[in-house]
Amino acid sequence: MAQRPMQRSDQRSLPGRLQIRTPGNRYDIDTSRIPPGMHYEWKRKTFMGSEDIEHLVNLDANGWTPVPAERHPELSGTRLQAGAEIVRGGQMLMERPKEITDEARELDGFAAKHQVASQMQRLGLSRQMGRGIKKSIGPAPDQERMVEDD
User: For 1-48, how does the pLDDT look when each residue is reduced to its tens digit (9 = 90+)?
Assistant: First the structure.
C-alpha cells in the first residue's frame, strides 16, 4: 500500500519538526504547557515603536508578569537568554494567577451591566434587558401606521 505524501499540516503537528510561523499563527501557544492555576495573555509592550511604560506599570499593578522565555523555548527561538521575555509584534506574553483573572472578569462584567442599566434608566427604558428595545430593522410601529393612513 502506497503512503500518501506528507501534507504541510502534518509537518506542523510532528514533534521536532520546524513550525512555520505566519501572521495567522504568530500568537498561537500550546495551552497544555501553561502551568496549572495560571492564565496567559498577550499584552502590549510597545506602541508605535516605543516602550509603553505607563501601560506596563498598570499591568504590573494588576498582577501581570512576563512569561519566562525559558519555560517556552519553542516561542523563544535560538536567541533564548536568561531572563528574556517572549515578544511578538510589540506584544509580550504575560501571566498571572487564574484566580485574579477570574475576579477581574467578574468586576468587568459588573461594570458593563451597571453601565447598560444606567443608560437604560437614563433613556427611560425597562430594566429588564430586551424589553422595550426593538431588535429588528424597519420603521418604528407608529411610523408604519402613518404610512398606512396616508
Answer: 454 444 444 444 445 566 777 777 888 888 888 999 999 999 999 999
Contact 85, 69 (CB under 8 A): yes
**What does residue 89 show for φ and ψ, rounded to 5 degrees?**
55, 40
With beta carbons less than 8 A apart as the criterion, state whether 81 and 19 touch.
no
The grid cell for 148 is 398606512
CA dist 150 and 148 (Å) reads 6
Q: Quote the distance between the C-alpha of residue 110 and its chain's center.
A: 19
Put residue 33 in one of left, alpha, beta given phi > 0 → left and psi -120 to 50 → alpha. alpha
